[in-house]
Amino acid sequence: MNEQETHTGGCSCGAVRYESHGKPTRAAVCHCRYCQTRTGSAFGMNVYFEDSQIKVTSGELKEYSFSNNANRHFHNRFCPKCGTTVFWRIEMRPGWTGVAAGTFDAPSFWFETDEAVQIFTRTKAPFVNVSFSDSHETAAYYSPTHNDHPGLMIREDQELQSFDLIAYH
User: Fold this and answer.
1) The domain containing residue 27 runs over which residues?
2) Longest CA span, the chain
3) How many angstroms separate the CA atoms of 100 and 116, rounded?
4) What region does 155 belong to: left with phi over 0, alpha with psi -120 to 50, or beta?
5) CA quadruple 163, 93, 128, 34: dihedral, nearest 10
6) How many domains is the chain built from?
7) What is the pLDDT of residues 34-71, one digit of tens each?
8) CA dist 137 to 62, 97, 129, 142, 166, Å?
9) Beta strand pairing status for 135-136 and 62-67?
10) Which residues contact 133 (CB under 8 A, 6 or more apart)?
């Protein structure tokens, strides 16, 4: 991948457009509960860049911030017209901007990066068949926003406990 490469992308309705410049810092298939709830899917596909590598070229973004059970702060930036989450910043990665991989006009350019990982596989949905040589079950800073697969973690002699949702603030 060319260090000077520029990629473009934007939200679903086209009101927000952006450019990324250079090579991503990291690409990650993330199975954490935060990414699952953020995307409404079984995982999030995240491409990270240094903040200076991302430029919004048109449109305005709104921000939604919250903390998880471990008191880690998340800042989602989204299009106020269509609701697409385009970027986010997380406390654990200062100076990095996460980009929703599917918002790139050519969403597969990052496949070539040497920095691709799979993370938080402990909450990976059993039907997802994704694998990377660099794969991590969890991390020291991770505290899921919800119980991990509560239906899969109980023994036959136990009752399923309620899904432990937190209040986002």
Assistant:
1) 6-152
2) 58
3) 14
4) beta
5) 20
6) 1
7) 888 888 888 889 999 999 999 999 999 999 998 876 77
8) 32, 23, 15, 10, 22
9) unpaired
10) none
